[in-house]
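B., you asked whether I could sanity-check this one before it goes into the benchmark set. Here's the sequence:
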Amino acid sequence: MSGYTREMIAMLQAQRAYFSSDELVRDRAESFRGLSPEECWGATIEACEEVEWLFSLMDPETRARAELPEVVPVSVIAKLEAMQRR
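And here's what the prediction gave me:
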């Protein structure tokens, strides 16, 4: 027995679904609507500070895994480069 109740498992599944959903992206984007570029930059800095705080709570092995860079697909790089040229 894992020690997890059906309710706990259901809650974890609901959280996983939300955190991988478009709804989360829309919810996060909503907080930036109407902000100036300076305000967006300030919010970005604040979010980065939150990440640093979370990293400070991790053991060194977990932090090292979390800090591994994600490979950006070539298709995404091409799209970003095309946007820059506009």
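One thing to flag: The mean pLDDT is 90. Otherwise nothing jumped out at me.
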